[in-house]
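Work package 3, deliverable 3.1, input record:
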Amino acid sequence: MIPGVDYSQRYWDDVVEGDELPEVRDEITYRRVIMNPATTWDYFPGHHDPEYARSQGQPTIYINTMHFLGFIDRLATDWGGPASFIARRKMSMRNSIYAGDTMVGRGRVTRKYTDESAGETRHLVELDLSVENQHGEVCAPAVVHLRLPRRPGA
Amino acid sequence: MSSSLTAAPPGPGGTELVTGTYEDALAMVGTTREVTFSSHRVTWALIKYFCAMVRDANASYWDEEFARAQWGGVVSPPALLLTWVMAPEWSPGDPLPAPMLLGRVPLPDPTVISVGTDMEFFRPIRVGDRLNAEETLREVTPRKTTRLGSGHFLSTESVYRLGDGTPVARYVHELFRFTPGEAGAR
Amino acid sequence: MTATDTGYDIAFGPVEEAVAMVGATTPVRFGTIDVNEAMIRHFAAMTRDANASYWDDEFADHQWGGLVSPPAMLMIWLMPIEWQPGGGTPLPLFMARIPLPGDTFVNASTDTEFFAPIRVGDHLNVVEELVSVSDEKRTALGVGHFVTTRGTYRRQDGTVVAVNTNVLFRFTSEPAGEAR
């Protein structure tokens, strides 16, 4: 076991529709936005060039799609545990998260279900998630279908 | 010219956008970009850097022993899917793979922004996998006006596979190609 | 902006403290990542380096026993990672931890000797030594001290792959000049 690494696991059997996910907050500095091209190799200038961002009508550089996705996925798997599997994730981006903003992640379980379409029985939950900024504006609403393990012995 | 599929080479920011008319863009709907094979494998170093950026402590990404037992090896965060086929902006010899469709759809507007994604994952993406992507232009809407400005929504659909053709993920990407509105223009 | 914002927690102190540290060495520090093809390609793309050793697996296997890292990437394989589970800010680079009065720094020179190729799959470690601290000097940037450190880089089997002597200028920042 590695210190600090998340091992706690949630089982499908224990989930109740309506369960709320713990809120996650993350302050996004200029430096974190610059990490976007560094880690994703996405050199779209809106994410590293303030002049280009302003030419788009944005006040400054803003995080890229993959950073939003990584934060949403982390919301889901921090709650679901390291044996959970993201089967599907839909996300819209309505407002940017700029250097200097805070990302606030929230969510809840909207559905608990099983699916046999892939030739095996999968146990899944549907999560309604969102990323807001420090002003309470919704930046990225998302729906994640997360496959969870069964409680051992269930 | 504008309706040709030979794109301008990607510039320093990869931001070269092909210009043309909405009719040119409509003529391109259904076009599939040539399958892009990645120059690199799914790499644990890049996984660590990305997880550091989003502060993700999931054992699947950091603990090799755990990940091997759970998934057969360390796995990639799903969010990093595109990076596994993201080509370096330069390479010697062979020409670069064609840029993503988002830059090649001919439209009159000067800039573009991502507005939505829908990804489906069929299997874990493991360190060592080498992915390829096949991308199709699905739709281009008529001109619309939003808070950002005036432009067209377009969507592309990509299928990501392993070298043996096993599908790994399906990805629908929605973008807004637009002219910034008066409030935003500088 | 605080030092921790930059990730370089500069240590402050009088020059006598730094001089007293000359000869000190760090405990061995291991890189977070393995030498890998993806980052090699990305770096060579940035520098527009067409060397077959970085792009052609067959050539590199024959020539070096495997795809090799550009020598310039040496420090990248040991760069502290921004964050890890368990939190905590990464230990800043040794050269920034030398107590001196200056509030900022700029790197002045490197002198690196390479003894073995650095190959994909290698995992490097480094031991650093404070070699010298100069008297106070004035340069165009300001008043400060030149700090010389030496890093000995080894791979997983203990072979020394490189030794790097680095000179850094640690100085007191002065207001920026007029924009030209």
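Chain B touches chain A through 50 residues (CB under 8 Å).
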